[in-house]
Design a protein that fits this description.
It is a single chain. The protein has helices at residues 29-52, 74-113, 118-129, 146-150, 173-181; strands at residues 136-141, 157-161, 164-165, 187-193, 198-204, 218-222. With 223 residues, the chain is an alpha+beta fold. It starts with 28 loop residues before the first helix and ends with a strand. Residues 1-22, 105-128 are annotated as: Disordered. This is Probable 26S proteasome regulatory subunit p27.
Length: 223
């Protein structure tokens, strides 16, 4: 008998290329970032599918005596989980390519900057920062919470949270550390938001006396 928890393979981009049909090795840095954004959006949608069934990636699909649970759409859950696993692998590869591309961009820009003015150096640094990658999605924001007061919205992508970023967030544990160390103090948060595409810098102050659970009042998902 097949393992009911083993995900079934679903259709989607192959390991040789992404949704735009361009082979991985031929994609520019901006194309890689655009593909990463698409993957993150699909992952968020798939997480919502699992949530609608009341399960996550680890929820058991069988009863205590080993029979399939009749209260779940087992086939859809297995297919959704398989797609999430596939996309997570793609996302890891994309982030590796993007990180390498950022290092190359930085190295290529460093030589001419040595002979330029300080203002020119700042401009180049600003251009490099435009390639910063988000590391978390805002899944939900509670009305009246510190997160809502700061301006966070569901669907926002977190680029930096204090000194936590895509290179050091350690599955969001760094975010929790920043929050616990800054209760009652404003934390600079940089986000990206679609419709229209924009980058926004917010000030989020964690505190307990807002009438809800936690210090932020929002739910973040790692990407």
């Amino acid at each position: 008998m097949d393992d009911i928890h083993a995900p079934t393979m679903s259709s989607g981009p192959t390991s040789n290329g992404y949704s735009n049909g361009v082979p991985k090795k031929h994609m520019s840095l901006m194309e890689l970032i655009a593909e990463k954004d698409r993957v993150e959006s699909e992952l968020l949608a798939l997480a919502s599918v699992l949530e609608s069934h009341g399960v996550n990636m680890n929820t058991s699909l069988t009863t205590l005596d080993g029979y399939p649970r009749d209260d779940l759409d087992i086939a859809q859950i297995r297919t959704t989980r398989a797609r999430i696993i596939h996309l997570r692998n793609d996302h890891r590869q994309l982030m590796g390519r993007i990180e390498a591309g950022l290092h190359e961009h930085h190295a290529s820009a460093a030589t001419p900057r040595q002979a330029e003015s300080t203002s020119s150096s700042r401009e180049d640094s600003s251009n490099i920062s435009s390639f910063e990658a988000p590391f978390a999605k805002v899944n939900t924001v509670v009305p009246g919470s510190p997160a809502e007061t700061a301006g966070l919205k569901a669907g926002d992508s977190i680029i930096s949270f204090g000194n936590a970023n895509w290179m050091n967030h350690e599955k969001l544990s760094k975010v929790a550390e920043v929050v616990s160390q800054n209760e009652g103090r404003a934390i600079p948060v940089k986000i990206s938001r679609s419709n229209p595409p924009q980058r926004i810098e917010l000030q989020l102050t964690p505190h307990r006396d807002w009438g809800g659970r936690g210090l932020l009042g929002c739910h973040l998902l790692p990407i």
